[in-house]
Amino acid sequence: MTPTDEPRPVLELAGARKSFGAVHALVDGRIALRSGEAHALVGENGAGKSTLVNILAGVHQPDGGTLTVGGEDVVFNGPAAAREAGVSIIYQEPTLFPDLTVAENIFMGRQPLRSGRRIDRARMDEEARSIFKRLGVALDPRRVARGLSVADQQLVEIAKALSLSAKVLVMDEPTAALTGVEVQRLFDVMTTLQNDGAAVMFISHRLEEVFASCQRVTVMRDGKFVSSARIEETDVDTIIHQMVGRDLDSLFPKTATTPGEPVLEVRHLGREGVFDDVSFTVRAGEIVALAGLVGAGRSEVARAIFGIDPRTQGEVVVDGKRLEPGRPLAAMAAGIGLVPEDRRQQGLVMDMGIDQNFALASLRKLRRGGIMRRSSEQRLAKVWAERLQVKFGRLRDPAATLSGGNQQKVVIGKWLAREPSLLIIDEPTRGIDVGTKSEVHRIIDSLVQGGMAVLMISSELPEVLGMADRVVVLHEGRVTGNFARDEADETTIMRAATGQHGRDAA
Amino acid sequence: MTSDVQTAPTGRPDSVQRSIGWRDALRWEGGLVVVLIAVLIFGSAQSSSFLSQSTIFYAGINIGYIALMALPMTFIIMTGEIDLSVASMLGLAGSLMGFLWHHGWGIWPAIIAALVVGALGGALNGVLVAYTALPSIAVTIGTLTLFRGVAQILLGSLTVPGVGDPQFPDSMTKIGTQSIPGGALSYSTVLFLVLALLAGIVLHATPFGRALHAIGLQPEAASFSGVRVAWVKFCLFVVSGLICAVAGVLLTLQNASVSYTAGTGLELNVVAIVLFGGVSIFGGKGTIFGVLLSVIIFGALQMILTQTHVEAEKQLVITGLLLLISVIVANGRELLSRVRSRLAVGGGSR
Ligand SMILES: Nc1ncnc2c1ncn2[C@@H]1O[C@H](COP(=O)(O)OP(=O)(O)OP(=O)(O)O)[C@@H](O)[C@H]1O
Ligand SMILES: [Mg+2]
């Protein structure tokens, strides 16, 4: 399929294999990165993308396969070797030293020195500044890393890669936690890098991003290479088919239901300095979406309802009864579940077994005479793993061994196991592949048909429009719109979300 | 699907999962069993009376009250905190009991007062650790000094019972010289074993125990699952204070006397026992069974050292070494992987 006039790849991985115990994460990993080209790697959750990245990063040693860089066979026996060979990795969540400055982070361990082995700060800041200039972004090299947005932290990591004169830049789901504007800025930076001759590899579950930013796309399924094509030679449907191995039904399965009694009534809810006078109602059998830009206060509202965060005004009423503030246990007892935004920090205990994570919110229910039996826990986990079709090695493996999408399913399952009457889901499909996404949507839809109420926070407009019966829009901590399903469209929501619209909550 | 990655419906039989899990969990404890057997063989080779009833009794007298404090310490270390004030609390409780006895209180009122102060001292630690952002190591180093200081104010250079004081009741001080009826074990040993059984059930078979694991591994995820992290920590420190007071009362009665220096420096033995028992210093991992084995090993070692006439100073060196070994070996794998992931710049994106 590769025309002969194409330049030789700077980095080529072929036939890479990697197993973790009985789990064959990678069976035939293949990728060829060319300089000046942005290359997308797509595949379902658990397809082996991150495993492939970790091999390129020198974090995992492959069980087999060949890796060539610049035409020569290489073996990365550690991250340092990969860095040396000019391969830099940008992870979804960068790991900067929070108390060091941006410039110090960039030059960590290789600071330019003055006489007497003192660090030459001026030169360091200057070099950092020139890198940012090259990237076309405005970041102050002298500010500390703490408090930088995820997007800015990624830029620092990219700057670090450039300062190492990386030839290959690998980005594993860099956009999953970014806002629209930030994604666009990242694409601009990618273009700059390509023009400078770097080879860029880009992983994302959002195919529109792939088509907007890459020239080539490789598809993986079940740890195997499936296809690689220039972007103009393929299309979304072909890629999805190759990823999933079948055609997808409609993306947003939405069954019309008649809403019942109000389950959740939020009245004039406020938290000093965060959000103010937020009111809305969620009925049984109804999905209400909280829409808005990142930073509008949506997650904060959800956390205050659940009692993780305090609230300073207003009240929350569940099934006609007022809910005590600041007590997640009270919220849980009232039938509320919360699937939080950050599944790796808040949703899961990563070092605990998959089974124990499934059971973590239901421990009291599993108790018989004060004692909790391991077997009942495993039974619960088994039931939900099956129902949600979680892909795993062994149920007692740590949750950290699951791929991102499967982790999300565990968090959802952990709450469904409590049979909540109201499920709050913050970004239900972040980092989830197309197939699983429609599966998660189908799960939510069937739960709602069964009478559950859902409060959904989503930054993806298609998801909001496709799933919600009612859309409540927040802008800077205030409700700027409250639309029924048939009133809501992209324009009305975006106008309310950006505060250009004066229409108040009902 | 690749062949061995399974979707749930084709689940592997439970037994396979369980056996592998047990092997993982018991690897360290298995090692401890081997060490224990080695120590016992060595001890028996040193002295023919090593496994005699009286040795077992005195080993219990020497280690029992320390072992008691290891139980709440296990819980606290499980949550990623530490309580370094345990030995000072023991000293304070004993001193208060002696002080009140000296001033003519009855034995039971004096004991109850000591236990109340234990719980209150624990509550002080608990409030500071759970409801302010202070690290427990700093807080409890502070209260380590504070409790010992109060004990010194109470007793000064006095040893109670001193000249003119009545002796503690015989019926109670006999726990220092007599074993339980019909057995070789000391009262303190029996109390420890009962509480260890209870602690084992709580830690490994109740929601509370599971919550402790979750707190130690990932406190934020725990609180998002409805675990009251601060409250749990507070309770643990209260229990720790109370149990240490119990240990102080026990030691006072065993010795039939008390001075303000009682138990000085024992916090390190307690921490050493817990860590040698396989409890992770980073929190979230460990078993009561491991701690129990560790207690027996420490008790046996102490007997060997005493029987072979190793002086107390040298015994201290050995405690120190064991402490180091347990931290390095028991937590070695975790330490290594932490160092590695630090070097690996993030380690992975999942
Ligand atoms: N350390 C590990 N131990 C056991 N299994 C692992 C480990 N790392 C990955 N796996 C398994 O390998 C498979 C591939 O995982 P990988 O993270 O590479 O998928 P991915 O394509 O990046 O998925 P996602 O899009 O969800 O991030 C998964 O089934 C995962 O559970
Ligand atoms: Mg991944």
From TrEMBL, chain A:
PROSITE patterns listed in its UniProt record: ABC_TRANSPORTER_1 (PS00211), ABC_TRANSPORTER_2 (PS50893)
Subcellular compartments: Cell membrane
Keyword Cell membrane: yes
GO cellular component terms given for this protein: plasma membrane
Location (main, coarse): membrane
Superkingdom of this protein's organism: Bacteria
Topological relation to the membrane, as annotated: Peripheral membrane protein
Cross-referenced SUPFAM superfamilies: P-loop containing nucleoside triphosphate hydrolases
A Pfam family reported for this protein in Swiss-Prot or TrEMBL: ABC_tran
InterPro entries in UniProt: AAA+_ATPase, ABC_carbohydrate_import_ATPase, ABC_transporter-like_ATP-bd, ABC_transporter-like_CS, P-loop_NTPase
Record's keyword terms, sorted: ATP-binding, Cell membrane, Membrane, Nucleotide-binding, Repeat, Sugar transport, Translocase, Transport
Gene3D superfamilies membership: P-loop containing nucleotide triphosphate hydrolases
Domain ABC transporter: 11-247, 258-501
MF (Gene Ontology): ATP binding; ATP hydrolysis activity
Name of protein: Ribose import ATP-binding protein RbsA
Organism annotation: Flexivirga endophytica
Gene from which the chain derives: rbsA
Automatic annotation (TrEMBL), chain B:
Superkingdom of source: Bacteria
Cellular localisation: Cell membrane
Transmembrane segments: 25-44, 56-77, 84-101, 107-134, 184-209, 230-253, 259-279, 286-304, 316-332
Keyword field: Cell inner membrane, Cell membrane, Membrane, Transmembrane, Transmembrane helix, Transport
Pfam families, A to Z: BPD_transp_2 (PF02653)
Name by which UniProt lists this protein: Autoinducer 2 import system permease protein LsrD
InterPro entries: ABC_transp_permease
Gene: rhaQ
Main location as per UniProt: membrane
PANTHER family found in the cross-reference section: ABC TRANSPORTER PERMEASE PROTEIN YPHD-RELATED-RELATED (PTHR32196), AUTOINDUCER 2 IMPORT SYSTEM PERMEASE PROTEIN LSRD (PTHR32196:SF71)
Membrane topology: Multi-pass membrane protein
GO molecular function: transmembrane transporter activity
GO CC field: plasma membrane
